[in-house]
Amino acid sequence: MSIALNTEGRSSGGLAHGMPAGPRFYQRRGKRLFDVFISGIGLLLLSPLLVVIATLIGLTSRGPAIYFQERVGRGGRTFWIAKFRSMRNKAEQFGSPITSRGDARITGVGRMLRFLKIDELPQLWNVLKGEMSLVGPRPEIPRYVRCYNARQKKILTVRPGITDLASIKYRDEERLLSQSSDTESFYADVVLPHKLDLSLSDLENESFPHDLLLLAGTAMSIFRRGTSTCTRPSGY
Question: Where are the domains positioned within the chain?
């Protein structure tokens, strides 16, 4: 399955006329090589931790340890993103796909995984397979992507990522969403457009040093969650 993609300016290879040779190589080959190397090493080194987490999930709640959800990736093609299950089994049948702080569907172990952001670790497998990148716009579910305008669809010219600038800015997104009486509408009408704007600005600066800065910023944001200043974006 794929979603119609009609964009201008940036090709699927991420090339722009007159771009210096360094960034051009990184977007064509270097970024993928970096993704494969880091995701492969990461899966190998973190395998004991992954087993422990999966065991904890299995011991404390019913259902599989890994949760798969359909998302939209590069070129509008859908794929199955992997996450450690942090909610009750089949939780999507009992509410919105958007969660906020205090959602009763989130398990005790799941709350810890989300706080530390390690529920996303299985996505290293998506990166290794080539469906995602370490750094790139977060992939959304099809129902939201169908509402993208032409400018926002430029997001779909690159591989989605585990983290990007929007992920760092919205590191405490669930707290922000909990302040709204209509969580899903607030996400679709306010939060998502702002996240897409941040991700689009990121694409203009794509380079190896920039990606390293975002990865470092993501790691630092985990330890600064207690002092998060995530607020409603102005102008949205």
Answer: 21-227
